[in-house]
Design brief:
Elements lengths: L1 H10 L7 H7 L1 H7 L3 H4 L1 H13 L9 E3 L5 E2 L6 E2 L15 E4 L7 E4 L4 E8 L7 E4 L2 E12 L7 E4 L2 E4 L5 E6 L7 E4 L3 E3 L6 E7 L6 E3 L11 E6 L4 E4 L9 E3 L3 E4 L3 E2 L2 E2 L7 E3 L3 E4 L6 E3 L3 E3 L3 E5 L8 E4 L3 E13 L8 E4 L3 E9 L4 E3 L9 E3 L3 E4 L4 E5 L9 E2 L7 E4 L2 E5 L10 E3 L9 E2 L4 E2 L3 E4 L2 E6 L2 E6 L4 E5 L2 H22 L1
Parallel strand pairs: 1-4, 2-5, 4-6, 5-7, 6-8, 7-9, 8-10, 8-11, 9-12, 10-13, 11-14, 12-15, 14-16, 15-17, 16-18, 17-19, 18-22, 19-23, 22-25, 23-26, 24-27, 25-28, 26-28, 27-29, 28-30, 29-31, 30-32, 31-33, 32-35, 33-36, 34-37, 36-39, 37-40
Antiparallel strand pairs: 1-3, 20-21, 38-44, 41-42, 42-43, 43-44
Helix pairs in contact: 1-5
C-alpha cells in the first residue's frame, strides 16, 4: 500500500490545488492509476487520491450538538452528538456549527480549548438554566453567527471566552430571537477582528429579543491594523458595556442600542471612537451609576428616540458632546425617560447643523451647543430645554420669512429658554414695521431664564433686546416673541420734539 501511495503522489506532482480542476483535468491519469491491483482496494486508493487532490483543506469534524447535562470540555468528542467536537483548532474557515440545546438541570460550563474555530454557535435550550462558555478562545469564521433561537428558555447564555472574527474585512453577527422575556446572551470577554489596514471588520447585533443582551468585554479593532465597526439591526435590545476602543463607528438601524457609563479619560467608551450614525431606533441608558459624556460625532439619517432603561438611582446626565448633522431635513427626537425620584437628562451639547428639529415624547430634552441649524424647532410634547450657553440660530429674510420655535395646538409642551438667540440679519427686511414671529406664543408660553440673551443685541430693559444694523433698528421682545423693525432712537427723539412743538403751538393759538 505504501508503494501505491508513492506511485500516486509521484504521478500527481503538478496537479492544481483546486479539487474540481484536478478531477476534470487529470481524470484519465487517475483512471489508469486505479486500474489493476489498485481497483481491488478502491476505497483506500480513492482516499489517497482525494487527500492528494484536496491538499491543505482544513481538517474538522462536523456540526454537532452538546448532548450531556453536565460541565465538560469542548474538545471531548463524547460530549457531542455525533461524537466529535465541532470545529477545529487549526485554520480559520471551519463551516461547523455547535448547538447547545440540551435542557439543563443547572447552569453548565463548557471549557473551550485554544483557537477553537467554528462557523457558528446556536443556543436553543428551553430550560431555566443556561450555558457558560469559558477559557480558551473562539475564532469565528468569516460570516459566522452566534445566536439564540426563539424557543430559548428564561436564562442567560454567557460567552466568557474571547471571540475573534476571522477574515480580512470579515463579518459576523450576534443574534438573539428568543421570545422569552428573561432570556439573554452575554459576551463577557473581548471581541475583535483581524482586518488589515484599509479594511474593516463588521459585527452586527441582531434579533428581536428585548432582555438586555450585551457585549461587556472590550470591542477592539484587532492587531492587523484595520478597523472594526458595529451595526445594530433588528427590533431587539443589545447593550455595549465594555471599555471599547474600536474606531470603525456604530450604526443604529433599528431596535434599542443600550450603553452604560464605562469611561476612560472622562469620556464614554460604549461607541468606541468613531462616528455614531443613526438610521432609526432608540438609544437607551442602561443601569447607570453616574453621569457620562460621549464625544462621538453623530450623523442623523432618520428619526430616533432616547430613553432610560429603568428609573435611575441618581440624577445623572447623558451628554453627547460631538457634532450632530441632521442630514439636511427635519428630524424628530423622542424623549422617553424614566424620571422617578431622580430625573436625569439627555443632553446634546455639540453643534447641531443642517436641518430642523422636532422634540417629541413626554420627557425633557436638553440642547447645549452653539447650534447652526436654521430649520424650525418644534415641540410637540414634553419640554425642550435650551441650556445656558447654548445658541439657537434664526435666518431672517423679508418680513415674516424666518425659521421659528413652534408648539402644537392643544398640547402641554413647554420650552425653557436659558441660552442665546442668534439672528442672521444679512438678508433681513429693513422697512419700518417689518416683523418676524420667532417664538410661538399661541400654543405655549416659553420660560425665559436669567441667562437668556440675544447675540449682538443690547438689553434695553423691559425684556426687550435691541440692535442697530446698517442703519436699521431691530428689537426682539420676550413678551411677544416678535422681532421687528422700529424707528431709530434719533427718529423717536425728533418725533418727540415735533410733538412738543405742535402741542405748544396749539396752546398758544387756543389762548
Amino acid at each position: 500500500m505504501l508503494k501505491q501511495r508513492e506511485t500516486i503522489e509521484k504521478t500527481l506532482p503538478k496537479i492544481s490545488s483546486t479539487p474540481t480542476q484536478n478531477i476534470m483535468k487529470h481524470k484519465t491519469r487517475i483512471s489508469k492509476l486505479l486500474q489493476g491491483t489498485l481497483l481491488v482496494k478502491g476505497t483506500i486508493a480513492l482516499g489517497i487520491v482525494s487527500s492528494a487532490l484536496i491538499g491543505t483543506q482544513q481538517a474538522g469534524a462536523a456540526s454537532a450538538s452538546w448532548n450531556v447535562d453536565a460541565d465538560g470540555s469542548w474538545g471531548t468528542g463524547s460530549n457531542w452528538n455525533p461524537a466529535a467536537a465541532p470545529g477545529a483548532t487549526t485554520g480559520n474557515n471551519s463551516a461547523d456549527v455547535a448547538t447547545f440545546g440540551v435542557s439543563l438541570g443547572a447552569v453548565r460550563t463548557v471549557t473551550v480549548d485554544a483557537n477553537r474555530n467554528v462557523a457558528g454557535i446556536t443556543f436553543s435550550n428551553t430550560s431555566a438554566f443556561g450555558y457558560t462558555l469559558s477559557g480558551g478562545s473562539l475564532l469565528l469564521s468569516n460570516g459566522g453567527v452566534i445566536q439564540g433561537l426563539a424557543a430559548g428558555g428564561a436564562h442567560n447564555d454567557q460567552i466568557s471566552t474571547s471571540v475573534t472574527i476571522q477574515g480580512n474585512a470579515g463579518t459576523a453577527a450576534f443574534t438573539n430571537n428568543a421570545t422569552s422575556g428573561s432570556n439573554r446572551i452575554i459576551f463577557n470577554n473581548t471581541v475583535t477582528g483581524v482586518s488589515t489596514a484599509g479594511n474593516t471588520t463588521t459585527l452586527t447585533l441582531n434579533g428581536s429579543n428585548m432582555f438586555a443582551n450585551s457585549v461587556g468585554g472590550a470591542i477592539t479593532n484587532g492587531a492587523g491594523g484595520g478597523k472594526l465597526a458595529v451595526i445594530k439591526d433588528g427590533t431587539g435590545l443589545w447593550r455595549l458595556q465594555g471599555h471599547n476602543t474600536f474606531t470603525g463607528g456604530v450604526t443604529l438601524n433599528a431596535g434599542k442600542l443600550g450603553f452604560t457609563n464605562t469611561n476612560s479619560g472622562g469620556f464614554g467608551e460604549a461607541f468606541g471612537t468613531g462616528t455614531l450614525t443613526i438610521n432609526g431606533g432608540t438609544l437607551e441608558a442602561a443601569n447607570p451609576t453616574g453621569s457620562i459624556t460621549f464625544n462621538n460625532a453623530i450623523i442623523v439619517n432618520a428619526n430616533f428616540a432616547v430613553q432610560d432603561a429603568t428609573s435611575p438611582a441618581n440624577a445623572w446626565d447623558k451628554t453627547f458632546s460631538g457634532t450632530m448633522d441632521l442630514g439636511g431635513t427635519t428630524r424628530t427626537i423622542t424623549a422617553n425617560l424614566t424620571p422617578g425620584a431622580n430625573p436625569s437628562r439627555f443632553i446634546f451639547s455639540g453643534v447641531i447643523s443642517n436641518g430642523g428639529l422636532i422634540k417629541a415624547g413626554a420627557d425633557s430634552l436638553t440642547l447645549g451647543g452653539a447650534n447652526t441649524y436654521t430649520g424650525n424647532t418644534t415641540v410637540t410634547a414634553g419640554t425642550l430645554v435650551l441650556a445656558a450657553g447654548s445658541q439657537t440660530s434664526f435666518d431672517i429674510g423679508a418680513s415674516g420669512t424666518n425659521n421659528k420655535i413652534l408648539g402644537t395646538s392643544g398640547g402641554s409642551e413647554g420650552i425653557n429658554l436659558n441660552g442665546n438667540f442668534a439672528f442672521n440679519l444679512g438678508g433681513a427686511g429693513t422697512g419700518l414695521g417689518d416683523s418676524w414671529n420667532i417664538v410661538d406664543m399661541v400654543n405655549f408660553t416659553p420660560t425665559y431664564g436669567g441667562t437668556f440673551g440675544v447675540v449682538g443685541f443690547t438689553d434695553i430693559g423691559g425684556n426687550v433686546w435691541q440692535k442697530v444694523n446698517g442703519g436699521t433698528t431691530y428689537q426682539f421682545s420676550q413678551a411677544t416673541g416678535v422681532l421687528s423693525v422700529v424707528p431709530e432712537p434719533a427718529t423717536w427723539a425728533l418725533l418727540a420734539v415735533g410733538l412738543t412743538v405742535v402741542v405748544t403751538l396749539r396752546r398758544r393759538l387756543d389762548s
